[in-house]
Amino acid sequence: MTYDSAEGQLAPLHTYDEAVEWINGLIPFGIRPGLERIERLMELLGHPHRRLKFVHVAGTNGKGSTCAFLTSALLSCGYDVGTFTSPYITKFTNRFQYNGQDIEEETLLQLSNRLKPLVEEIAATELGSPTMFEVATALAILYYAEVCYPDVVVWETGLGGRMDVTNIVHPVVSVITNVGYDHTDILGDTLEKIAFEKAGIIKPGVPVVTSVDQPEVIEVMAGRADQCRSRMYLANRDYRATRVSGDEHSQRFHFEGPFREMELEIGMQGEHQCANAGLAMMTLEVLRQYMAFVLDDEPLQQGFRHTFWAGRLETVRIEPHIVLDGAHNPEGAASLVKSIPQTYTYNKLHFLAGMLENKQHEPVFRQLLSIADSIILTEPDFRRKMSAEELAVLVRRLAADMGRTHVQITVEPDWKQAIKLLQSQTEREDLGVVTGTLYLISDVRATLLHQTDSEKGW
């Protein structure tokens, strides 16, 4: 039995697996927007989040990649960096990183034992039980505030912004990647409503950097920034990131901001990654100008060059050529479809896709059908999976509407068999792309890269 000296009692959780099982056991409490439970948790812990510097990142797409660019550049410039992201691709510990390394399993166990009695105490009140994501957020704060003490924490929202539990923090800079149609059941069914939720991370007097581009979204962001008297740095107005060149291995873009300009190289693929990298660069410029961060050109460029983020136009097999990309919403699919012909040379293009029930399937598959030679429809190993047969009805109808009836559509509900089918269809000069929900990407990635310790989840 594990003894928790911090609490002076026998700990209720004995192993890492038990700790993860306890946290994931809170998933049935769902996603419950609101800050009351996390505020109560922080109060019981002595407000550890107030001792940390956060860069708070929200947006529909590109959050993870932007966090990766920020983390890599800051590390390269000599800073100690905490990074909190979700979902995770390989293992639960991926969520909580310090200087690019996952939290130790033993540390996660100890912190879970700190939190468990407090979670049970709150669950017994009118507030109800904290959710899985609330407990994960509290665990991250404890880890950074009491175990590893980073200079800065790159802090990704879970869902939305205004009522997202990560919004408990007061950052040194807020970052909003973009706004599109995702989680419309919670965030609202118009871009203005979704933008309002994302803009909720803008805090009084705290600068905000954003690459949103729709006029109605810019209006919402600017209104919130004015209300908070926060300086807003907007892409293509206050700074620019212009793609200069690129191939299957890297791409270059020119950054021009209010304080300096430079050319940067990144290994991540797709023009949208130049936009994410430009957003990260402008954020770093804000830290340099207003927070006295020392960010010299050479280590900064090296940090961008070495940035990696799993499951985003990631090549996992050379022969046959298989690429993974978690494009699970319309904007993600649009970026993927634009990036593929820009980045790769191929004869035929084969997709393997699986989705969750609550996503906007029609606009996603309109994008994929526009360039596909074949699509294999499968089902992710997850409780809210969309039936491959139901998806096929929709995709066949769309193909007929679009005049794309020559696209070969195959149904294979077993994702393991679907991978084998994709590999057999993808000939030497072809390209195979696995896309859709990150739950599918996680399993396929673990299988193709032979990762035996893969866990997956939100």
Quick description:
This protein is of the alpha/beta class. Helices cover 40% and strands 19% of the residues.
Strand content: 15-25%
Helix content: 25-40%
| Net shape | globular
Identify the strand order in the major beta sheet: 6-5-4-7-3-8-9-10
For the largest beta-sheet, the strand count, sense and barrel status come to: 8 strands, mixed
| Average residue-wise pLDDT | 93
Report the total helices.
15
Structural class: alpha/beta
State the distance separating the first and last CA atoms.
29 Å
Number of strands: 19
- Which ranges are low-confidence, i.e. pLDDT below 50, for 5 or more consecutive residues? 1-8
Radius of gyration: 22 Å
How does this model look, in words?
By secondary structure, this protein is an alpha/beta fold. Helix content is 40%, strand content 19%. The chain is built from 15 helices and 19 strands. It has helices at residues 16-24, 36-45, 63-76, 105-123, 132-148, 184-187, 191-198, 215-227, 271-290, 297-305, 330-343, 361-369, 388-401, 415-425, 438-448, and strands spanning 3-4, 9-10, 54-58, 81-84, 96-98, 101-102, 152-156, 173-176, 208-210, 232-234, 240-246, 251-256, 261-266, 314-317, 322-325, 349-354, 374-379, 408-414, 431-436. Strands 6-5-4-7-3-8-9-10 form an eight-stranded mixed β-sheet, sandwiched between helices. It has a six-stranded mixed β-sheet with strand order 14-15-19-16-17-18, with helices on both faces. α7 packs parallel to α8 (215-227) and α11 (330-343) runs parallel beside α12. The model is unreliable at 1-8 (pLDDT under 50).
